[in-house]
Design a protein that fits this description.
With 115 residues, the protein is an alpha+beta fold. It is built from four helices and six strands, in the order αββαβββααβ. A six-stranded mixed sheet has the order 3-4-5-2-1-6.
Amino acid sequence: MSVKPKELLHLATEAAVDKKAMNVVGLDLTGISMVADYFIVCHGNSDTQVQAIASEVRKRVLDAGATIRGIEGMDSARWVLMDLGDVVVHIFHRDEREYYNIERVWSDAKVVETV
């Protein structure tokens, strides 16, 4: 089963929100980047919460029949990067989110309604 990028965006966002992810932002990178169509950026307030958010996103994506191309950073839980193909999920620990400020780096992208 093929899950469309916009559906993946909503699915992953809902999973993150259900695990109390903070300040969830969807960025539309269509026409801006060849890396992905959408980024989801959010953060948790502890290593445990970051891991819980990532685990829930992984579970929901797999249950929907989508493929996860890669997950990095689960062990340290400071910045978990999930490659879902057309959607890339960035789950930061609060401190790292402030430091890396991904939204500023991709400031050309439109913020999209995700849930």
